[in-house]
């Protein structure tokens, strides 16, 4: 008896051969993991069906029973082999700079639109009954709170915790694989 559980996705370079052990966890026969599977060599996302894996294993091991467990599809990502990318640090720095400036401008314009210093002074006066001596006494803790809120939202202090951003990126990747995945025939 050979048990096969497909992985969610596998990444292969263009020249690599796809083996069962790449696309699935195999239990029952070590040789079953070395069985090769057909996969186009051109770059793209391909859908590997569990039945195709079972058929390939049955050809090599006709006397064994094949039991499929878990997912019925594995997405095979064929990736182009890339050379050294010397501009990657420059592009990364440029993207970070654009994101930083964009978020800073967005926060600044939002605070200007709602007149944040006056709004904070009004909140302070509503709570204490007296206007603040200096609005910066309210603004500084507010800025620290915004920074801490962003850190907690993206789980910066808790590196092994799943963040909402990771959940959305996983959903996006699954949707893209379903839309772009070409069946392997």
Estimate the global geometry from the Cα principal axes: elongated
Count of strand segments? 9
Q: What Rg, in angstroms, do the CA atoms define?
A: 27 Å
Bin the strand percentage: 15-25%
Distance between the termini: 26 Å
Layout of SSEs?
Elements: E1 2-6, E2 9-13, E3 18-19, H1 20-23, E4 24-27, E5 36-37, E6 44-49, H2 50-60, E7 66-69, E8 73-79, H3 88-114, H4 116-128, H5 136-153, H6 164-180, E9 182-183
Parallel strand pairs: 1-7, 2-8, 6-9
Antiparallel strand pairs: 1-4, 3-5, 6-8
Structural write-up:
The chain has 185 residues and is of the alpha/beta class. Helix content is 49%, strand content 20%. Strands 2-8-6-9 form a four-stranded mixed beta sheet. The chain has a three-stranded mixed beta sheet with strand order 4-1-7. The radius of gyration is 27 Å and the shape is elongated. It starts with a strand and ends with a strand. The mean pLDDT is 88.
Summarize the structure.
By secondary structure, the chain is an alpha/beta fold.
Keywords for this structure?
single chain, 185 residues, alpha/beta, 4-stranded mixed β-sheet, 3-stranded mixed β-sheet, 49% helix, elongated
